[in-house]
Amino acid sequence: MSHHMIEAGKPATKLKSEAVQVLLERGLINQCTDLEALDTKLSEGPVTAYAGFDATAGSLHVGHLMPLMTLRWLQRLGHRPIVVLGGGTSQVGDPSFRNEARPLLEQQQIAANIAGIRRSVERLVDMSGQDGALLVDNAEWLNEFKFLEFLRDYGSQFTVNRMMSFDSVKSRLDAHVPLTVLEFCYMMLQAVDFLELSRRHDCTLQIGGSDQWGNIVNGVELGRKGDGRQLFGLTVPLLTTANGSKMGKTAAGAVWLHPEHLSPFGFWQFWRNTADADVPRFLRLFTDLPISEVDRLSTLQGAELNEAKKILATQVTNIVHGPEDARAALEQGDALFAGGQELAEPTHRMDIAQLAEGLGLLELVVAAGFAGSNGEARRLVEAGGVRLNGIVVEDPRRRIASGDLLAKERLALAVGKRRKALIAFD
């Protein structure tokens, strides 16, 4: 079953391992380099698996949750996760499906980002004990390489022809967007990570987003050529909502996992506002609830479906922020949705400098997660559904100025009766 797409929940042959069974059932497998061989390996005893994240910000975001949930399930089923933070690769930037180069970061900033990310990762996988999950920084080995040595040892293992065939590179070239040698070499670095992890920690499985497929395949091939090792690659599906848009992004940026970037209540509210059609899939992907309970919640309709959304929001918040913050968010949500009470704590934070640059109302509605695009926000405003500090605003060209801010540099935004945000400008 080499190198092809997997339809969630439909294995081609009888499975041997509980791990593959669970991952398929929950919809966490998109592609696998050899699912049958991986299934056999997972059934034979504990396997070490890794997912890598570049430390380009001080927090991971909901787009990273799927590979992390995959590691979480593997650990629960007796396997060992490694989370690799790219202290080395963050100095380069992954070009995958980007149409511009990523800004390069200073060492100090990378170190601070790694410290922030560690906090979220520790909640998702258990790092305690001798066999606990490992957190590894790829700067450990990438910073040690001398250039000529690296070229001699690894440059000979990659052909430009093969690298050009990957979609991540092809899409840049087809769009006539410059692709630097620095970025082109990124996939070599990721392949070397896999080889090093297999040597140091007997890691045989890499997990990543579907945009990482080419980089992962390179690592599997390098393991075979370099060490004669059998390595495996597995990608999780690209996360889109039922209407086809990429999930978890707003105009103000991503839906962050770290509480300093987005409050636990803001995070809870993001999940509580899930579209009806996405509830069953998100319960499978982002909670630890048994499939029987997911199936029961998935059949709910109307007002009962809102209960399912609250369960989804509370479960995900519990996994990411812990039980206390999840309980507090649920209570705040209940009070807000039931009695129309005003919010006490900010749900979102924005940079006050954006006001000076002329922050548009539509941009604000999208940033709060109440609309997927400026067009959708415009329709909400024109229908009289948007209130700023309790007053209906009907001009979609309205700009937000510092004079609009309430005490403590805050701004109350509401869409309809139920969706409310309290935005703090720092």
UniProtKB/TrEMBL annotation:
PROSITE patterns listed in its UniProt record: S4
EC number in record: 6.1.1.1
Residue span, RNA-binding S4 domain: 360-417
One GO BP annotation of this record: tyrosyl-tRNA aminoacylation
Pfam families referenced in this protein's UniProt entry, alphabetically: S4, tRNA-synt_1b
InterPro entries named in the record: aa-tRNA-synth_Ic, Rossmann-like_a/b/a_fold, S4_RNA-bd, S4_RNA-bd_sf, Tyr-tRNA-ligase, Tyr-tRNA-ligase_bac-type, Tyr-tRNA-ligase_bac_1
Binding site for ATP: K249
Segment forming the signal sequence: none
Catalytic activity: tRNA(Tyr) + L-tyrosine + ATP = L-tyrosyl-tRNA(Tyr) + AMP + diphosphate + H(+)
Binding site for L-tyrosine: Y50, Y186, Q190
Subcellular location: Cytoplasm
Stated name of the protein: Tyrosine--tRNA ligase
Taxonomic path: Bacteria, Pseudomonadati, Pseudomonadota, Alphaproteobacteria, Hyphomicrobiales
